[in-house]
Amino acid sequence: MSNVIEISGLNKKFGSGENEALIFDGAELQIEKGSFVSLTGASGSGKSTLLYLIGGLDRDYTGNISVGGKSIAGMNDRQLSAMRSEKLSYVFQFYNLVANLTVEENILLPIELSGKKVKNYREKLREILEMTGLSEKRRNYPSQLSGGQQQRCSIARAVLSEPEILLADEPTGNLDKAAGEEIMKLFKRLNEENGITVLQVTHSDACAAYGSRIVRLSDHRLEDVGGSKLSSLN
Ligand SMILES: Nc1ncnc2c1ncn2[C@@H]1O[C@H](COP(=O)(O)OP(=O)(O)OP(=O)(O)O)[C@@H](O)[C@H]1O
Ligand SMILES: [Mg+2]
User: Fold this and answer.
1) Which domain holds residue 165?
2) Residue 37: is its pLDDT beyond 70?
3) Is the CB–ligand 1 distance for residue 49 below 6 Å?
């Protein structure tokens, strides 16, 4: 299996001198295509920072980060944004939906903004609405949805363009247990049926357990603490 994300010898700090905060010190991580990885670790350890680094949104580091087999260090801004739009999608704790657009319009927004033809995505949109349980809500506005529905809308928006990798930063952090489980089941389907590689940050053991692999960030490094990767090493 090929790796869609490869990180080696990653060093990252914020600030300098007295204000220096060390985040990564020789961190390594390989993520196989088609896997579902849960990333855990203490608050402030650098999980969100890692997701930004993978997307090339923070370029202040040393070491190697490759996405889809290509090192991102050598990419210029245009190449980086092309890499992001082809390969990655982000989902955050707060759904970041546009209040005055309907569910359907929110989901289509990235397609419109990237200048692609919306009509080519009609069938895919129908499938995604169905999969996320939002078919009936497609003409509603975000304020008319529950938190779980809003998060499912933001996930639909993230996957309409069929990214290779879904990066989710505490996607259930704002939801109750039942709504959180719906999100995890949705990720599992996207992973198993659509082949999307998932890297999710979570503080919940129950959510982490949905991953095929659990990676922990501690002492400025990344290590497997559960899932198939660990059992194959033992
Ligand atoms: N732009 C920045 N400038 C300076 N320090 C930063 C910056 N962004 C993050 N940090 C610091 O880096 C550390 C890691 O932050 P990060 O947001 O990645 O943690 P996290 O693991 O995602 O935490 P949480 O679980 O609370 O979301 C924190 O100590 C934070 O204060
Ligand atoms: Mg965070």
Assistant:
1) 3-233
2) yes
3) yes
